[in-house]
Amino acid sequence: MTYYDQFKKNIVLPQAILTHILDIFPTLVSFNVWLYFYGNESLAPSQIASFLKMTTADVNQAINLLTDSNILTAEFDETTGEMRFDTRPAFAKLDDLLAVASNPTSAKDSKVDDEVSGISDIARLIAAFEPEMPGGLTPINIEELQKWLTDDKFEADLILQALREAALNRKVSLPYIRAILRNWRNDGIVTARDIADNREAREMRQVEQQSDTTLSEDYFNSVDSLRKAWGYDNAQ
């Protein structure tokens, strides 16, 4: 059963649609508008504007974006005389995305492959961050994670390393993790492999320092023993 079939009459929103929110909806504002229609398809744009503290014109603009993107359709109900908004096309788009992600060999060009790779990265981040963030992830949080990947060009694996660092310090928050990532970049750390290389280098330096300390102690102990054996300590 597809998401389209499963959720077309179900008020519960699937986690998968949040995972791919930026791949389905043109903006986060349009997603919020769509979400109200998902709960009640007969809501008036003016009602949604009141809920979201927006103007009706802004809500209508979001509706136009949704309909232009083929993830919302509007139908006039002749029985009630009301306009009804069908949110099911968003689930059809989700099914298409998941079908491509599960079978990347069916992609027709490298551009589609890149999109699938991007979807995979954001999905990994959301899956890792969701249980760690107090109260879970909001759409704004997800948008920031996406910007770390696309705008800041941080590797997904590096972001996950920063999340682990924050968790160890018990300071899991996006500003704290962003600071870790920027400090690493300033130190020349741009990949997760750099973290591993730095750790290995530190461990080698510690071993060398310990070795040097041991050698130095052994050397002086040997000299002391020779001095005693040759009688230098008793010399007048």
Automatic annotation (TrEMBL):
Report the InterPro entries cross-referenced here: DnaB/C_C, DnaD, DnaD-like_sf
Q: Read off the Pfam families from this record.
A: DnaB_2
Q: In what residue span(s) does the DnaB/C C-terminal domain sit?
A: 128-195
**SUPFAM superfamilies on file:** DnaD domain-like
Family from the record:
Belongs to the DnaB/DnaD family.
What protein does this entry describe?
Answer: DnaD domain protein
Q: Which organism is it from?
A: Pseudolactococcus raffinolactis
